[in-house]
What does this fold into?
Amino acid sequence: MEFDLIERIRRRVATRADVALGIGDDAAVLRIPTGQELVTCVDTLNAGVHFPLDTAPEDIGWKALAVNLSDLAAMGATPAWCLLSLSLPHGDAAFVEAFLDGFLALAKQHEVALVGGDTTRGPLAISVTAMGFVPAGKALQRRGAQVGDEVWITGVPGEAAAGLQQWRDGGARDTVLRARLDRPTPRVSAGLALRDLATACIDVSDGLLADLGHVLNASEVGACLELGKLPGSSALSAAIPDAAKRATLQLSGGDDYELCFTAPPSQREAVDAALAQCDTAGRVIGTIEAGLELRVLDAMGEPWQGVVRGWNHFDQEQR
Ligand code: ADP
Ligand code: MG
It folds into this structure.
């Protein structure tokens, strides 16, 4: 079965000039441009854990690549290549074709070539390794945030988590929110544009507070977030009318795949212009402070009383 499936994949993939050898040999051979560093990451999606069991195969394909391109975006890297490890319960050709529809649609948008992988029988799980490059020494990192920097977020955090909650509740379901869950937008062009502007950057996958917390730890600073500054949307407000619940979701819901980054106030206009150039909404939501605390202020400027937690795979009580 594997050979048939691999052949289906091989037939459909696009190539690039920098792929010396793609699918079909024991390993791929790739040409890294002179003066650039290779940036690489891997993320796995397990059925029922990282996507609801009723997720369309096209959407699983999209998301498997999107979450990895989001990691490259957070590093300010230009994506180039990827590897795909597929564990499938059945040698289901229809599933693979539909999966490829979503996967390759996103790959095409970013000119990413699928250059190899592995296909095995087992519980449904998809692991993608993405590779890209940055000019030597230019990768954005979690460390680098400075006291006085502003904290920014792209997009609308919480929409994907609201989509997941609606799916779980089984009531009315908003297709916009579900699409944020199933088809996240990796902020690749924003990451590139921020490379010379941001002091630190992370992609938000486990919740805004949890991921901003990683930036603070790595940078050895604290921050103050203002709930009143969080970007919202009509879909989010309609789905979660209660302001406190909505705030909790925006701060600690997962699956946003937005960029959270820091930049000095003097770069505010440059950041705005850079994001506008790539059609990405972005907002200042707080400030980096001395100390190691992450403070959250409510709309009145008072300390927020809500629960502050992120998603941790080993703490199952949260889901
Ligand atoms: P090997 O036994 O050497 O690992 P495989 O039969 O696993 O070889 O794979 C054969 C070729 O097909 C390799 O080039 C591999 O990278 C590619 N390949 C296998 N599975 C996938 C997949 N899911 N997506 C893309 N390429 C794949
Ligand atoms: Mg193999």
Residues 118 surround magnesium ion (ligand 2) (CB under 6 Å). The first strand starts at residue 19 and ends at 21. The two ends are 36 Å apart (CA to CA). Residues 57-74 form the longest helix (18 residues).
